[in-house]
Amino acid sequence: MKxxxxxxxxxxxxPELEHVDLEEPRPDEVLxxxxxxxxxxxxxxxxNGHGPPVPRPIxxxxxxxxxxxxxxxxxxxxxxxxxVVLSGNSCGVCPRCLDARPTYCREAMRVAFGGARLDGSSxxxxxxxxxxxxxxxxxxxxxxxxxxxxSAVFLPKxxxxxxxxxxxxxxxxxxxxxxxxxxxxPGQSIAVFGTGGVGLAAVTAARLxxxxxxxxxxxxxxxxxxxxxxxxxxxxxxxAGADQALRDIAPDGFDFAFVTADxxxxxxxxTTCLGVEGTLxxxxxxxxxxxxxxxxxxxxxxxxxGIIGGSANPHALIPQLVDxxxxxxxxxxRMIEEFPFSDFARAWTETGSGRxxxxxxxxxxx
Length: 366
What we know:
Layout: E1 2-8, E2 16-22, E3 29-38, H1 41-48, E4 58-59, E5 64-71, E6 83-86, H2 95-98, H3 108-113, E7 124-126, E8 129-131, E9 144-148, E10 152-155, H4 161-164, H5 170-181, E11 189-193, H6 197-209, E12 213-218, H7 221-230, E13 234-237, H8 242-249, E14 254-259, H9 264-272, E15 274-282, H10 294-299, E16 303-306, H11 314-326, E17 336-340, H12 344-353, E18 358-362
Helix pairs in contact: 5-6
Organism: Streptomyces aurantiogriseus
Family: Belongs to the zinc-containing alcohol dehydrogenase family.
Protein name: Aryl-alcohol dehydrogenase
């Protein structure tokens, strides 16, 4: 079928909308009409050649939500007309997948960034030429996407699909890190470094979990204002005075520090603000050399914890987050700004500049 997709090519500063061809679903796949999809900084990094390499040309996008249009012959859990949010891909058969921990799938890097199914095929072509796809199992910068049925999370039909896409990556990464990876308990404390979509989701989840002290740290003051509205008890302006400000707030240190930025100095500050047996969790690697103070860590039983996808099972956590959102306890939509798909370049640019926290692209009505 003919679809419209934002295609990332080597020569472009921004992916551009093109007409491409999409295959029919294979037995384990679903065809989803994308209603809306979020832009994540992982998409921007992939296009710009930062992080794991991706083949070109490629259709990016991995925060899609939409309506199932068709299902493969082996799909029994979903049916045409179902509403879904698409999460990350996984192999489905390795020990981590079988333990309902798909973010740590042994094939995670290949199925996320390889630009193809595990058998090496891509479902997208253009004039007979291959276009890489299946980015994070979806390539949702498109009017339609094919996805493995196991990565499509069912949603009730009264939930507004145009808001739900970010639950598949940015929101579940931030919220899952607090609720699943850290398992933060009522009365504990956390410092969140970076108040983009992932960091603000972590702040909101920490309030939901009953944290006593929630400190947001950033160099962007308007975002710190929003962090307070979403649950931060304190805010700290990043920079030279941040270390002392954090010590003033929590002289004995924090139970958790959560880093969403890639600046090495932020990692150092996050480490030194930990209390005894505190945990530093991070979702991106530092962009430059950073050597942890292992003496400080070991002396107090402190831990470093890498986190992928919030360590969450999307089929379990996303419905819970939707229920909390319905009840007004998890207003992640406060960080969303919507753009028509035709205005892709502006949404992309304003996300990259930091003016927009979470851009969501809405597809044309059908």
